[in-house]
Design brief:
- 80% of the residues lie in helices and 0% in strands.
- The chain is globular and about 55 Å long.
- The N terminus is likely disordered.
- Helix 2 packs across helix 3 and helix 9 runs antiparallel to helix 12.
- The chain has a single domain, classed as ABC transporter involved in vitamin B12 uptake, BtuC, CATH 1.10.3470.
- The chain contains 15 helices and no strands.
- It has 365 residues and is mainly α.
Length: 365
């Protein structure tokens, strides 16, 4: 009896799965295909960064990684041949593509929670904090001769700034955006003072404009590795805490009543924002990095029917914006940050035009 029941249950589950697949609308199918292709592209970029790292290893591991790495360069040569360019055969281009692909996922992913919590300016604030971190890192490298990545210093300073901002918001009676404005202007002021003082005191070899406006040239191998590790960590944290973040996003008071540690999840969210900002700063620059957190989400919110769909669409829009912007930047020798944001804004305006939504509001599913 039990065997017959279990035997019949398997076909029933298969039929149910097939029914759900057939019930997908064209819209849902396109979103599913887009997310799948984005995930596949992210895996390929992570593989490239891993091979770029492993080819420095001794012995057979390094030799095998070098061989596989050469296949990426061969693919780049073919792309150059087909497109009439001379950029894809170089490793720095692939590092920039890998960095852009990954921040194009985690930026809108974290930005979806920020926008729905009306915390869009947090990204801009932490970008300026990261700029102060770059200034600190430049001085530290110039004085000590440290060979590590500037992004590590920027990440530490930005994370500390995020936690400081969270503490200031919770312990002041000012309006919610007052601490944000103070930290934003204060951190940028500190950064400009440190850089101005450093230029007159020690030799600073790095062009700071690349960090302000974004540049493919400042994406180093160590920077791409750091972004890869942090991106995987951010995605893992969001997946693991999805329900908690969702609860706090739409009803923070009810979350407190349910005895969720709201302060902890708020701190986790702002630290993840700092992580994303530092990674995206290489491509977009300090001035424009907040756009990747906000604009794809704003566009997705115009046409999405649920919070989950907003997440999916914002990631897809972010990915199209990043890859399209990098293509325009490479083809036209233009700054990547401006190219990415202009494309994102064009998608947003198109979403507003085709949407019939005049009042915000989405399902929590």
């Amino acid at each position: 009896m039990s065997l017959d029941t279990e035997t019949g249950a398997e076909p029933a589950r298969n039929v149910s799965t097939l029914t759900r697949i057939r019930a997908l609308s064209l819209r849902e199918a396109v979103e599913l295909v887009g997310i799948s292709l984005t995930a596949l592209l992210a895996v390929l970029m992570l593989a490239f960064v891993g091979l770029d790292w492993l080819r420095e290893a001794p012995g057979g591991l390094g030799s095998g990684a070098e061989l596989a790495f050469g296949q990426f360069m061969l693919l780049g040569a073919w792309l150059d041949f087909l497109l009439g360019t001379n950029v894809f055969r170089h490793p720095f281009t692939w590092r920039a593509l890998a960095t852009g692909t990954l921040v194009g996922i985690v930026g809108p992913l974290v930005g979806t929670y920020l926008v729905h919590r009306q915390m869009a300016l947090i990204g801009e604030t932490l970008a300026h904090t990261a700029f102060a971190g770059v200034a600190v890192g430049l001085l530290f490298v110039a004085v000590t001769g440290w060979q590590g990545s500037l992004l590590v210093v920027a990440l530490i300073v930005s994370a500390l700034g995020a936690l400081g901002l969270q503490w200031l918001t919770e312990h002041t009676d000012s309006y919610g955006d007052v601490p944000i404005a103070i930290v934003l202007t204060g951190s940028f002021a500190v950064g400009t003072l440190l850089i101005s003082w450093g230029r007159d005191t020690v030799a600073i070899a790095i062009d700071i404009e690349g960090f302000l406006f974004g540049s493919l040239a400042i994406v180093t191998a160590s920077g791409a590795r750091l972004v890869s590790v942090l991106s995987v960590a951010v995605v893992a944290v969001v997946l693991y805490n999805y329900k908690q973040f969702l609860f706090i996003t739409f009803d923070e008071q009810a979350a407190r009543v349910a005895r969720l540690n709201v302060a902890w999840y708020n701190a986790l969210l702002v630290v993840m924002t700092a992580v994303v900002v530092v990674g995206a700063m290489q491509i977009l620059g300090v001035i424009l990095v907040a756009g990747l957190l906000v604009i794809p989400v704003a566009a997705a919110s115009q046409i999405a029917k649920s919070f989950r769909e907003t997440l999916y669409l914002s990631i897809l829009i972010g990915q199209v914006s990043v890859l399209g912007g990098l293509g325009v930047a490479i083809g036209g020798s233009l700054p990547p940050g401006g190219s990415i944001i202009v494309i994102a804004i064009a998608i947003y305006l198109f979403a507003v035009f085709v949407s019939d939504r005049s009042v915000g509001g989405v399902s929590l599913h």
